[in-house]
Amino acid sequence: MDNVILEKGRKIAYFSMEIGLKKEIPTYSGGLGILAGDTIRASADLGLPLIGVTLLNRRGYFMQKLDSAGRQTEHPQEWSPADFMKLLSAEVTVQIHNRDVKVKAWLYEHRSQTRETVPVLFLDTDVEGNSSEDRQITYSLYGGDRKYRLKQEMILGIGGVRMLKELGHSITKYHMNEGHSSLLALELLRQNGTSLSTVKELCVFTTHTPIESGHDVFSHDLVMELIGNNSDFEILKKYGGEHQLNMTVLGLNLSNYVNGVAKRHRQISEKMFPGYKFNSITNGVHSYTWVCSHFRTLYDKYLPGWANEPELLVRVRSIPDGEIWEAHGNAKKELIDHVNSECGTDMDYDTLTIGFARRITEYKRPTFIFSDLKRLRKVNEAGKIQLIFAGKAHPRDIQGKQFIESIFRYAEELKSEIKIAFLENYDMNLALKMVSGVDVWLNTPKRPFEASGTSGMKAAHNGVVNFSVPDGWWLEGCVEGVTGYAIGPKPEVDKSPEQVEMMELDDLYNKLEYNVIPKYYERRDEWVTIMKNSVEMIAYYFNCHRMMRRYVTEAYL
Fold first, then answer.
1. Distance between CA 491 and CA 494 in Å, rounded?
2. Is the entire prediction scored with pTM above 0.85?
3. Hey, what domains does the chain have and what are their CATH numbers?
4. 71-100 pLDDT tens trace
């Protein structure tokens, strides 16, 4: 029977289009999915009565292949759900395009070190009786056209609520992790006699991006074609937009608690959506997951219990500097060995190593460090540097793909001076290698488009020094020269975007040449102090345990 997952009476349903639980379950593309996975892990640690709901994505996001010129091609990432989860007998239907689409669910149980378990439901339309077209709805994450995306969001939102009901759950809060799942509120209106106050009390909505393209919008013609129900259509027009369906607006209008994912992001969101009040809960990462084995051993020795109480990382000063440096050296050796075996770059263990890894897209500015090669060469003369990149460009992001090719060209142009590597097929395992193995974690987003960012938090957990534009979480985490370094002015500076960019470039090269390099090579004790500060002042706070406690007290209770 399916009631194996009903034992603890799950009360909080966490809906996310993608949830990154492990490399072998490739149902995630990047930050949103990894955050969702960390949310599941932290909830299990804390014993929260939470259940995750997502899509199965049988072909994953995509497997990235890069040729010798950095040209990206995408390949399906086939995997077998049966290797990791159990198919439940429960079945529900969602009407799409005037036909019933059958939906089943696979159960994955995440078990914490505390022995607590959080179940995750992976919704699947590859079910006998569905048409070939409908069976493919849960094949590819972010694949297909607008029609395919809306079908997926109908399965996630409407199908997810129905599946939870079918399984006997009595949910008190539905947490929408981004607008992809906002149609769950439509289903809740149906089930609650269209009572707006009842549904708003049930719903929590978190938005994750100031990028316009990150807020799904669908034409009313498409909505009517797929939903096909006049009363539902009128509800969506009323709460989701008079001229087109905006999934973020739908979530905002049907939730009593709404939040951004950093203090700055709350301000930006209120400008993007005037008239709505946003709260802010700054993201965190799951500490145990994102600490490499060498630092885990160190923390276990000096800070017993840290894995379930990451606040204990505030006591990192009890660890001798030499042991911190040795643990970092071991993590760095693992990364450099991996890079050399994959890319043949002949990098060494002693050179200051800078890492940049995230989704490759325009606002992340992956080639920013190459903006002035003359100044970059001058930096390298002050002290040798080597650069490691990784990241996928969305299959339809032509500009993102061109950025990867540009990095390959810069690597060729500078190969006799600066060693540069680009690692293909960025995933959770490679991410852990990078955030623990580089010396400096570089982040150069175009402000104010970094809602939060979490990779730098992972780096700090491993004593890696952050060097980032003061946007998103880094505005809260950066104490200049103490926990790392900022690139460019604070947000409140009264300058044009062009002037800000020039200030950022100056800061990038100057701080590398006059702060980072001399400290790394000549004042190692001061460098290790910053590494410790990163753990003490960043890792102890920017973790998912703190984040989930705030969701419980501010949004769920």
1. 8
2. yes
3. 12-65+72-284+547-556 (3.40.50.2000), 293-541 (3.40.50.2000)
4. 999 999 989 999 999 999 999 999 999 999
